[in-house]
Amino acid sequence: MSQKEVSPTTLRIRFGNVVKNMLVLLISLIVVLGICEIILRVYNPLGFRIKGDKIILPVNKTEIIHHQGSGKLDPVVVHRSNSLGFRGPEPPGNFAGWLTIITVGGSTTECYDLPEDQTWPQQLEDRLRHGFKNTWVNNAGFCGYSTFGNIILVQDFLVKLHPKVLIFLVGINDLGVSAAREYDTRLKTLNFRSLERMLASLANYSELAAASLNIYRYYFPKSVMAVAARDMGEIDLKSYNNLEVTSDRQQAIKQLHREKYLTPFAERVQALIALSRAHGMEPVFLTQPVLYGPEVDGPTGINLATIRVTPDMNGEVGWEVLELYNDAVRQRGREAGVLVIDLAREMPKDSAYYYDLMHYTKAGAALVADIVAAQLTPFLAQKFPAYYQGTNAPQAVVP
To answer: What is the pTM assigned to this prediction?
Structure first.
């Protein structure tokens, strides 16, 4: 045997040593990761953590949105979520000692394309702070969420966080919806398309994965999106076609919603009321406003009743259908003694306040905050007098 040749016995010994070393390394890694997981479960210094069973929230995420060709939105918007996965300030350390309010809904609550300080929930906090001490408002609106998703969000997260008030803006995403959609569930399925998505998939199982996700989002470049005005839905009312809907067709559309969708929707509203109150959170509801309906738009002179808003509905029919859902909110709120702020009727149908048929401009979000604050202030003053610091006694509020 030459000096360069190695005997089979020597090869087996070397291979065995390599395998043993790899096993030792793997076991050591597992032990270290296990210790880190235990430590983070006992004490996690990286922020407020609430785990859910069905929804993955975008914790500590930043997106930079470039609006291309927009006439109503800022050219660049920074969209941030905090350690809860919501928009707004971090939760106060003495959470139970604050007047804590969370807004719940879809994209008309989230105000995705508006800057942080211009969303209506943030502007609502600014207004409430003039009359209340220790006030904290967070925005838990998520694009596409219907009452199906709202129920999951309350069950999975908000009952554990336990704010004092939940404000629900519901309706538009429930039109013609009979079951939860992908928007509403966002199930925790493993996703290996990127490191961030994989960590997000694991985050609700593991504190270590959650911590790694937070660190990744902090140190690595933030996602940047360029969105053209036509893609974000910004509208030119003058480009809309008119649609004539016969009286018989109008009645048939409304009857379909009455027979198939309205009762389950009203039951989900009732479930949100019951779930909130069962966990000591006071529910407040807002009816859903939109731009279209039986009026003429002031800035453009366009008849908002005749424009086509869906393939089979014009503005008049679309508004009457949406009002069926708003009526369900009004009725369930009245029956349960819940404050319902009728935003749908108080919000003007004026394109200065909307950049599409339902989403608000900065001026629109400010007006929403004004309307909500005006009715919410006396309600909160009665429910939570310890936080009220106004000079005059609030007027009685009868939901």
So the answer is: 0.81
